[in-house]
UniProtKB/TrEMBL annotation:
GO molecular function, one term: electron transfer activity
PANTHER family: ALCOHOL DEHYDROGENASE CYTOCHROME C SUBUNIT, BLL4482 PROTEIN-RELATED
Chain ranges of the Cytochrome c domain: 29-117
Signal sequence interval, chain numbering: 1-17
Presence of keyword Ligase: no
InterPro entries named in the record: Cyt_c-like_dom (IPR009056), Cyt_c-like_dom_sf (IPR036909), Cytochrome_c-type_DH (IPR051459)
Originating species: Mucilaginibacter auburnensis
Full protein name: Mono/diheme cytochrome c family protein
Record keywords, A-Z: Heme, Iron, Metal-binding, Signal
Length: 137
């Protein structure tokens, strides 16, 4: 009886996974990969909760421009910034360093950040990230 229940559960899991669309699966892959990149490259400064580091490092929960402007976000991740960043609560003057991330990782971390901390912006694919990076000034 126990094995029957386990078998039925496994069958249900496989059935539910098969019901996901390709775009849902793509989002899940980019989001999960972005979380890994974020944890290894961004979390040290911005924190596991995206709230930043007091008055030193800006929170990702309050950067309204970057919540919806994926071009600006991709450019900021790739090239960093020496300009101050403004949030609703504070101005941050410290520089954000450039990264050596490949475009696929920029797409993943953009997907993660723009769909975390109260954001829901969908998938940023590698192809989209390539186009965004061409628009950097």
């Amino acid at each position: 009886m126990k094995w029957k229940a386990i078998g039925l559960f496994a069958l249900a899991v496989v059935g539910l996974a098969a019901c996901q669309s390709e775009s849902d699966l793509e989002f899940a892959r980019y989001y999960a990969g972005g979380k890994v990149v974020y944890q290894s490259k961004c979390q040290n400064c911005h924190g596991s909760d995206g709230k930043g580091l007091g008055a030193l490092i800006p929170p990702l929960t309050d950067l309204s421009k970057y919540k919806t402007d994926k071009v600006a976000m991709a450019c900021l991740i790739k090239y960093g910034s020496s300009k101050s960043l403004n949030t609703a609560a504070n101005t941050f003057g410290d520089k954000m360093p450039a990264t050596d991330l490949p475009t696929v990782d920029i797409a993943k971390v953009t997907t993660y950040v723009t769909n975390s901390y109260g954001n829901k912006q969908g998938t940023t694919t590698t192809q989209q990230a390539e186009e965004y990076l061409k628009k950097c000034r």
